[in-house]
Amino acid sequence: MAAFFKAVNAKIRSNPTVSYFCSTHFWGPVSNFGIPVAAVMDAQKSPELISGHMTLALCIYSATFMRYALAVTPQNYLLFACHFINEGSQLTQGYRYLAWHHWGGKEKAGALGAVDAVKKSAVAVGDKAKEAVSK
Fold first, then answer.
1. Has residue 117 got a pLDDT over 60?
2. In sequence order, what DSSP letters do the residues of 69-112 get, joined into one string?
3. pLDDT tens, 36-71?
4. CA 20 to 30 Å from 38, out of 29, 73, 94, 96?
5. Inside any domain, residue 70
6. Which of 37, 53, 38 is nearest to 97 (CA)?
7. What is the DSSP string of 17-70?
8. What is the pTM of this model?
9. In a domain, 30, yes or no
10. Which residues lie below 8 Å from residue 82, measured CB to CB, with a gap of 6+?
């Protein structure tokens, strides 16, 4: 049985393309792509849900592994691309976090919400006035 597995492994490793697709050099980055996909999808959500500490940690993590992907031999460009996308996504999330919590985004949204509420109440009062006049 061991000879069978040894023969199959030798057959796989003899073809460079198949060998690459059966290696951790390929499957590690592919499985890791869930993080940048989630970050890109989260860019559509409200900035009040963003964790500043986690965003910073993921920025450091992605920068570290971008460097690692180019430091190993052979260089792992798929891992680099995964962390490059994640770094960009996390920097975007970090900007959104800072804009919401530290640069007045929350206050602006509150002011816009108050203006919208006043507009709605003014429309409602106008409708009631029209009804009263028409009676």
1. no
2. HHHSSS--HHHHHHHHHHHHHHHHHHHHHHHHHTSSHHHHHHHH
3. 888 888 888 888 888 999 999 999 999 999 999 999
4. 73
5. yes
6. 53
7. HHHHHTSHHHHHHHHHTHHHHHHHHHTTS-GGG--HHHHHHHHHHHHHHHHHHH
8. 0.66
9. yes
10. 29, 32, 33, 35, 36
Instruction: Decide if 69 is inside a domain.
Output: yes
Q: What are phi and psi of 89, to 5 degrees?
A: -65, -40
Cβ atoms of residues 82 and 88 within 8 Å: no
Q: Where residue 80 falls among pLDDT bands split at 50, 70, 90?
A: very high
What gap in Å lies between CA 125 and CA 119, rounded to an integer?
10
Domain extent at residue 62: 2-103
Nearest of 79, 54, 43 to residue 64 by alpha carbon: 79
Q: Which of 104, 103, 94, 13 is nearest to 52 (CA)?
A: 94
